[in-house]
Fold each of these.
Amino acid sequence: MNRRPPPVLRPRGVAALELVLFAAAVIALWCVPVFVKKPYVLHMGVILFLAVIQGQAWNVVGGYAGQYSVGHAAYFGVGAYTTMMLLELHHIAPWWGLGAAIANGVLLSLIIGTITFRLRGPYFVLASISMAEILRYAFLYYKDLTRGAEGFLLSEIPTLHLFGQEFEFVTKRPFYFVTLGLAAITIVANHLVQHSKLGYYFQAIREDQDAASSLGIGLTLYKSVALAISAAFTALSGGIYAMFVKFIAPDLVFGIDVSVQFVLICIIGGIGTIYGPVIGAMVLVPLSEVLRNPRGLVQVGLASPDSSFVQFVEAHLSNAHLLVYGVLVVVVILFAPDGVLGLLRRAGARLRRRREAQGEAGAAGA
Amino acid sequence: MLRIDKLNFSYGDLKVLWDVDLEVRDREIVTVVGANGAGKSTILKNVSRLVRPSSGALRFGDVDLRRLASHEVVELGVVHVPEGRRIFPEMTVLENLRMGSFPRATRQDRARNIERAFTLFPRLKERQKQLGGTMSGGEQQMLAIARGLMGNPKLLLLDEPSLGLSPLLVKNIFEIIREINRQGTTILLVEQNVYQSLRLASRAYVLETGRVVLSGTGAELLDNAHVKKAFLGM
Amino acid sequence: MSKLLASALAALAIALPDAGQAQVKIGFINSITGPEAPIGENLTNGVDLAVEDLRKKGVNVTVVRQDDTGKPQVAMSAMEQLATGDEVAVVVGPYTSASSNAVAKLAQQYKVPQIVPAAAKEEITRQGYTYVYRLNAPAHQYAQSLIDAALAFGKPRSIAFVYESTDFGTSVTAAGKAYAKAKGLRIVADETYQKGAPDYRSTLTKIKAAGPDLVFMVSYVADAILLMRQSREVGLKPQAFLGGGAGFDTAQFESERDISTHVFSVTQWTPESSPASQEFERRYRARFGKKPTYHAACAYVATLVAGETAAKAGGDRRKIQAALGSGRWSGILGDVKFETYEGFTNQNKLVMPVIQYQGGRSVTVFPPAVVKAKPVYPFPGWR
Amino acid sequence: MVAFAQSVPGAVLILGGGVPALAGTELGPRMMVFLQSVLSGVLVGGVYALIGIGLTMIFGVMRVTNFAHGELVMLGMYLTWGLFHWLRLDPFLSIVLVAPALFLWGAFLQRAFVNRVLDALPQNQILLTIGLGLVMSNGVMLAFTSDYRILTTSYSSASYDLAGISVSKPLLYAFLVTVAITVLLYGFLLRTDTGQAIRATAQDREAAQLMGINVRWTSMLAFGIGAALAGAAGALISPTYYIFPQVGSAFTLKAFVIVVLGGMGSVVGATLGGVIIGLTESLAAVYIAGGLKDLVVFVLFLALLVFKPSGLLGKTRA
Amino acid sequence: MPTILDIRHVSKFFGGLAANSDVSFSVEQGMIMGLIGPNGAGKTTLFNCITGFYPPSRGDVLFKGVRTNGLQPNQMCHLGMVRTWQKVRPLAKMSVLDNVMVGALARTTRLEVAREVATAQLEVVRLAHKAGAIAGGLPIGERKKLEVARALATRPALLLLDEVMGGLNPAESEEIIQLILELKRSGLTQMVIEHDMKAIMRISDRIVVLNSGEKLAEGEPQQIVNDKAVVAAYLGEEVA
């Protein structure tokens, strides 16, 4: 009988296949607007890609480095406000504004990191929430600077001149391409980070801080780096969100629900994996969108306006998306702590084992 | 009274006990000696059901202990005084003692048992209002034993009562253990202090890396050269 | 659960489309749930009555309702949905200032005529939007009417402002402070508060210590009640409490007699204003079992205007926009005409009556032209 | 640890500490403002303390940080509102129904959910309780909509006059009931076998087992009591608050601030912490700005976490 | 032989409790120093003080002649001192190779280099066949080896092993002993805490005995075995 071979490192072929699949997916998504003209579909696409970016960003510090921040709204909000305020108050175009948003996000992450990284476990979580809340209250209160609860309504995004072409950010299309591109970049960047010394160190910190420290890893330094990377992408997504939704206010961008949503994207998909956030976003975004606005299904052509499902959801569940989030979290934590990806992986392994067993049985029979 | 047959136990995949057989008869003092990490405490934890054995039988009288939860074992009259005293630091001496008679059946004897504890350990009487956590190591050990006695034990499991105590106190503690036994309580004692505990024991077991390597009366083992070897690696 | 199921079945039954007739599709964005929902309910009722009347006139209206839960970003996506998905001819709403302002931008962008029924924020009609029409009077009139009334009734010298840190609260207060200054009133306190943490005792104590003659409050429903309760608790006793509309002009507030009595508020409409209004009140009470607020009246008129105009224009957005700009209507809000003046675009000029709660109901006490009862001034103290 | 000093520091101590700063002056308007805000702060703080004690019980016995605690308060508020609305039951009387109901609910949550993650990573516990909180708040929203509810009783805006300082009747009643509940709880924890068993479990779970204490049962009991206290607090503040499904999250955070302030697991600390937070809010609203009072609380919280992480009364943090 | 580690009057207090008091000894380059003592004698605390996990309350630790009090563990690692843990701490969700690579990355930023070093170290501890396995799933014996390999990958000058044989069966222990002796032959200085007396007597050049936080004795294995005080500490006093 054949003994099972020792586990081997992932062969190069798999990595190459992964790359090809990834590229194919991105290209396919890039072509979607050619065939689908409905703004609603593109709208959903943008929201989805933003969620992917946010999930990837949180994953760097929460999933890989194991620092469960539930205060990422701080970076999101600062990114959104930086971009919006530069545009509305100083007429600085958002592409510069996004750079400033990233810079501010990183700066803020250094401040927050210094304060919160001394703490572990629930204390870290509480401190991270508090930081976001402090910002929310500050932005609400100092209205001479921030316009308080009134928030900012975007007036107009200037035309972008690039490579001799003009890009107008009026319809959903340009946002679709921009967010898709950034989501792809985020995934690639995260992949590169995780396959570098940084990535190894982040994971070591997550697995065991003391062991990591004894192996020469400066905890504060590397946690700060992880947070800075995470903050940069989160702030970027905040800036784009502001441009896309065209309205921001403190409760909208600094709220706890924003932070929780970032975490959920990763938890539900699978924490600490490259594709976990992608899957999480693919589960959460459509789900909450269908519940919030079932008529979207009609627009996409998936349901007739008279369907009882649409009417039922509209009548009773239109505010239930957070309820469903809650149920999902409870179910995931209790039954699939590694998220959907972990579940799939386990199912795959079981299938493979069964097939192997069958193969062996077959061989024995022959 | 207590009978352990072929007890095996692992912490995860770290196997700690291999086929341990052990017996405690009525009114005996039985000692288990062995080096650090030999698995002595683990035997007691199996008896008091803090951990679940991988295999083997545990019987107290006619009762199969494997079917019980920790608190039910206590209600049977098997009381475990754990290693490191484990008294409740934020409770007073008196409250600690009261907790010792938490099982309903023992509450009626509470006053009498407290009296007995104070007779055995006059020091505790002086300190009865003091918080457990603020007492010295020796006092805490006395409290831990006294607290164990509050549950009217038929069998008392004592884990390293001499640990970290000064020689004088150690001697004191061993005398008290003898006294408790004389008053009718059977004792299963786990000790590092080989000489003293063997001298006390009716019978004893030597444990080496999770296996019983020797057993006999205390006196027999005191003279056995293997004992010294097991401890000092000579 | 069984209730849910039953309505799911009911939904199945209703799902039969009206066949035949040409329809007018009106979008209606409102705060159906959320903190502003109690007010939103009034708007919904107003719209329902208007739809009834339109049908009587042979205008077959379909109202596509969207709940913005009081949040501008939700209102915006609702507006996008109405503009691009449901293809409505005209939009009525949303209720809150923040939402209306956000939606106005989109109305202009998508070229969908919008009639704002009851949002106060000045900017909504000050940005030159050609597709945005406002029925109600803007924020500065809330403040001006109230302060004018107080100055007419007595000789206040100082004023304190307490307001919710929302778009509505901030804009009304900003206008109020400017007007108070212009009228020589000393501003002795300027306090914002956060929704959701309703312990204002300290703030009110501070105001009490400042001893203002007038206390000007701006808030939505729940806060209005708690603010007055706690004012009573701490024994705040100015010459007058001026409630800047919204929460101070609701049936719920009125029903809290202990605390609402002698409070002044400002409103866009009162049932006493005309026989037609009285008739509206009667109908409304018969139908919904309570008194209509100005929100209901405004939404009612806005929907009538929207429906009639849209029907005449055959649902064409461009034509509706033109017709709204040039049209003139009259009804329970008096004459309605969207005009361009003093920096406002498409703003209906509406005189805001000042009301006072007396004996458990509101009576109009200012301006003199529409007065129905004598004001009680100064505030006689808590009972 | 459910820590107990033998003495119970009261609010009087704090009052005594604050007043001398202005001693020697007459009771001018500024002094009145100060005293008024101190009084409101202490009264509100008492109710906060009750919420904090509930949380600290749960943490102390199970080491589980319950991020759904505010939602339990919210459920208490809705129950109270419902009892008042449909049965005209006085909110203060309704405690006798609300607290047991929440006790059962808490025990159920512990048994069905929290119990399964006792050995899981702390972050998974946090997420689980956040999830439970979302389910509760949004379930309530589905049932009752997100409308703000308000309870109007005959004493809703009544007050006593104490030398020119007004004492809100509903707040005073709430405070007195809080004191009574707290005293009862102290008595229960200090004097009864069951109460002592809970404390013993909190201090050393394994040793408690060896005393014959069924720790699964004490855990359920502790969660139940924690939930009941949160529910009672909800009932107590209903007459002076408004009620909406999301009201809980503010309480969750506040409760954590209180508990960390007093030292996690310390009941006395939570009592003290509640009063301090009530006072801080009240004084911040007067002397800094109403809109900044929550910000001040969080800044205080962070400063404490960084400089004295064990809390005011806590000893160590393992 | 020059001294690599010098411990001078080190004390460590927790609250009022002295876990170590006034411990002094030095370790020479290339030797194996055994550290023994009954439970609670303060051996692991001393390791923690040496490797930077606790600052000593009193006294000094000198590594390669430099005073290292107050340095963090990661800094100690870069100076060339690394430890293993009594209770193994694998980076559980990472592969065996990745675990060792984390150690190797202390000396390089290039993954290829780290991979080579790690592969070589896995050969040394005879764990190469498990390179792709998830560390958390290894049996205890292999986890102990993994700890050693990971520590070695940081290229230490001094290796501190905390009960690396605890919980192993005799064959596994023997394997570890051979490994330790092999490392000694390659010139690595080691300090070993061990409960298996046979093993520690075999491998140590010198032994320090701790009892209740104090140094009870120091000497070569034979001296230690015959030391009255040591025997008493282990077996209890012979009371007449």
Note: Chains E and C do not touch (no CB pair under 8 Å).
Amino acid sequence: MMFEVAAVALFPAMFLALARAIAGPTVYDRVLAVNTFGTFTVLMIAVLGFMTDQKDFIDIALAYALINFIGTIAVLKFFAVGDFGYQQESKK
Amino acid sequence: MSTLIDLILLTLMAITAIAALQLKDLFGAVMLTGIYSLLSALWFLILDAADVSFTEAAVGAGISTVLMLGTLALTQRNEKSPSHPRILPLFVVTITGAILVYGTLDMPAFADPQAPIHTHVAPHYIEKSGEEIGIPNIVTSVLASYRGYDTLGETTVIFTACIGVLLLLGIGRRREDDES
Amino acid sequence: MISTVLDSLSWLLLLSGCACLLISAIGLLRMPDLFTRMHAAGIGDTLGAILVLAGLMLQAGLSITLVKLVLILFFLLFTSPTACHALARAALAGGQKPLLAENLNTENPISESSPTEQPLP
Amino acid sequence: MSMQLSAHLPALQIVVPLIVAPLSLLLRNPRLIWMAAFAATATCLGIAVALYSQVLQQGEIRYFMGGWAPPIGIEYRIDQFNALMLILVSLVGTVVLPFARTSVDKEISRQRQPMFWTAWMLCFTGLLGIVATGDAFNVFVFLEVSSLATYAMIAAGKDRRGLTSAYQYLIMGTIGATFILIGIGLLYMLTGTLNMADLAARLPDVTQPRTLKTAFVFIVVGCSLKLALFPLHLWMPNAYAFAPSAVTAFIAATATKVSIYVMLRFFYTIFGAEFSFGTMPLGEVLMILALVAMFSGSLVAVFEQNVKRMLAYSSVAQIGYIMLGISLATTTGLAAGMLHLFNHALIKGALFMAIGAVVYRTGSAQLDQLAGLGKKMPWTMAGFVAAGLCLIGVPLTTGFLSKWYLVTASFDAGRTVIPVMILISSLLAVIYIWKVVETVYFKPALALKPGQEAITEAPLSLLVPLWVMVAINFGFGLQGSVIWQTVLQAARQLAGES
Amino acid sequence: MNWIDHYNYWIVIFLMMLGFYAIIASDNLVKKIIGLNIFQTSVFVLFISMGKVPGGVAPILRDDPTVLYSNPLPHVLILTAIVVGVATTALALALVVRIHEAYGSIEEDEIHEQDQLAG
Amino acid sequence: MKHHSILRIITKLLIPLILLFALYVQFHGDFGPGGGFQAGVIFAAGLILYALVFGLDTASEVIKEWVLMILVPLGVLIYAGVGVASLILGGNFLDYNVLAHDPVHGQHLGILLVELGVGVTVAAGLTTIFFAFAGRGRRNPEGALITKAANPTQEPQR
Amino acid sequence: MNRLVHGTSLALTLAVIWYLLSGHTEALLLGLGCGSAATITWLALRMDLIDHEGHPLHLTFRAPLFWVWLMWEIIKANGQVIKIILDPKLPINPRRFRVPASQKTDIGKVIYANSITLTPGTICLDVTESDLDIHALTADGELGLKSGEMDRLVTRLEGDS
């Protein structure tokens, strides 16, 4: 039961984050909203895994927690350099 | 319960899709497409399609977004307003949608356990894969063995796309003489 | 007995976690500019995630699931500040100026027409 | 061993090019890759011929991929029609590849050639895979393999318009493929199976006519997009006109024909003729579209100034002929349509190769640039004229054969107006072919632009494949009755009459 | 007929048509691809909704023999279709990049104009 | 952009974990959700992250282009090779039963290899595609953009 | 030498994580796990990821205490920000300022900066040689940081390495 409640309780939060993503006004706001939305999704997946008693779902949450980061880095790269190929950092 | 979640998610998807398509700023549209794919991943999860959800999350969150941003970085970020109303497309879309809705009227109800797809072929996978293949994940059994040939095709598709992109863009340092 | 305590504790953690997430989303909507919104988003990324995941961990017991939940939390705590920082850098590089107290009208802190609200990239 | 090998021919038909494609990429040298590709294609032709003789001897061949019996697994099912299609695709491949080598050398930079040949092989693999499979979803997978490769190849040329036309084709093609996917999904929903034979067996028991009709409509529209049936042909002229010449010759001869094959497979094998032409008003709709396609395609071709585009519009018209035969809903009509499908593939292959040879020398396919080429490139232009005669349907050529049977089939079906239409549309074909002939033979040659090399006859490496193709055309024309019987037999089998 | 049985399908159809409209109506090449993504994803949703069994779980075998599993076959088909979708998107984006290099624009009407001018 | 220490250090920490997780997904597709394709995507994502943070030149020193050009076809070849192997061992194409003495073992082995093939092609293929896109906007040694990429910070039309 | 130590320790860590994730004890999967850990370590060495930054061994023993302290800080800071968000008047007072960072190494500064960002109410915008560029939601946040407690703790965590 508790997981059902948690899952449903997560939706208003997701909805508000979505509202921010749609409203903008700047693209950074959208990125921020997408990021937050990503975190919500990770938690949602975990909760759903418990709700339906399928713990395998946690793998998906884990994968998503790892991958979500890359999108934001790509955004940074996009605005800071405007080009994905540019040599930006030295290794040291 | 899951019906409720299912409906909420579908509604959110509809909102996201509309917002993504009416944005003139392509960057924002790409971001919203990311959310759309996340929502669909969640939705797949509600419908027990764990593998599909995994794929959609990985692709939608990582690869698609990065490739789209890469394209925007090389092209331009905003869309011009369409100069003329689009009657014909609207007409085509309405007709197509109407045909589909017509088609749904006879469909087996959502999640009907007596629907043909649950009584033919699939039961074999569910009941026999344990002894025939011997691995727990039925999706993997079907994907890699029963319908392994499709998956060979799928791998070939990725290979083809890779070759196609290389044929168009080339890899490595771009050379002036390489261009058409 | 112990399971009842565990259950009620994880109820508490989960619900308060969800509340945190909701508050964070409200903050995301209410705050006047990008940088202040980041603070709001931070609640969800830190406390919200910690509470929800802790609630789940109590239910998981000693199992692989627990390890995976810990790993998720670990990743979130590493990536979210980094992503936040990266975004802030991107915004600054893109010419966004944070809305600061000296520019704020103290009577009406959320001024819709404040100059930084202008749509910048 | 040989016994064993012959049992695996259906798999080898696709596996050989499928393995050669990635393997050849490792070779890195364009020449070597081309040789590997040619060897694979020729092998495929051999396999296809062997398969056809097997089918004639043993009847339908079934091959279970992974050893799983259908409908659990995917099966390959070869009957006479598939086998003929396999021969057609690999024959065109084998003839066009030598032509492509020289032509591509000029149009695509050496360092991109490895990719290009790999894409070519993948396209070839995909086409064979679509034809051989007996599984509806597998059709979609291989359709995408061939389509993706085709998009990339079309955009690989020097003309920047190739990029936009490839993009347009990609969008339209993906819509088409997705429509087919929706249709397959609905069929699956109704029956629970994806195997074509199993679908055919289970569809008559389906009690949900509306969903079934919707599935049918989506598959028809999807296939029509892919095969460029009249109102959905918009992607084709540009794609053919601005692709590298060899690519045009190859895909014009194969890709649309394979799509027609898919459509026929769905009509006859899966839905059954009774549903397709009885329950659904397919015959009438197709006939109208086919007639409009015949006229509009030919008319636009008459006024077109770019010869490649002209031929592309001519293809729209010729696809109209094929669909016309199918729309008669009789076995002879089907056979006539199928015969025209094979003929048109070979004729268009030859025509596009001829024009490719011209582009190789002059760098342009504009009609006015062709002036006086009859003297400078006599063999190329003779090949063009010979193939053009087939296209028009002069007696003793393949084109005449298929049109003749179309006419008789329509008389049999009681449609007496259609022969008149065919005649008029053929006259239009005479006009546009004549326009080229007139320019080539009766107009003075253009003065050379400064720095331009003198135009000479195309190299042998282009001429030989061209004339081989022309010879095949005339050979078919001479063996008319044999060919007709072969196709008729395949059509009977497809329609379930044998 | 219970409306909720088909409500799912209707939203999915609405989403599909939304994507479809964006593909054929928008002038911007990238927007078309976004539309294509939405269109294809919605088709995937249609497929997956077929496979649901009430009270079912993900088709991963468990020891408990009473468990109901959802139908694995649509999942497999859609996995393949997603891969195809990614491949198509990548190729389309590569084309867009090249088109922008060649024409300096990703608006269909502007490109068309340039082609007209060039003859 | 010289001192982006946060990004650099966190990325250094994360990449091995992402790659490990990718391989975990690759080899546990039999037991839970996941498999070759998902693993390939995650692996590629790890490599892309590396290329994004440390630059394309550094990345292509670590993952040489020619290696990628071998790996992409290699995956397909592994897959098709398993099929051919089963042909040679007397089964139908892709019939894994004949790969080992016991059909179930054969299936295990076949699926493992086949998924590996998918994983290799997908990981290498997606990385190659990213490299192709990123390399397109490469700057020449003088620091000027080779392509005329639009200024990304330009004002979007609203 | 250093690379060897770091490499071995990374491989071991990865193998342990693999085992924790997998939970399967069949020889095949364990073997694959070892193989994976070795492959990734090799790749990480190639990528030059393994050094005191990418694999901070020297922090292992002092970190847990710091984490506990940080958790407490996070909870406290969260409480404040939640109060602000729920306040109908939204009493924010955003400010941007710099604080000195006394850490010697980059990794120390990164820990400091991320700790700042992790505690809601303060965000680190930029890291330079000697100080951090901070955005704070309220004056309290600024005061808290300027007291320098976190700075000291992170420096102590960093130690002499």
Note: The first strand of chain G starts at residue 95 and ends at 100.
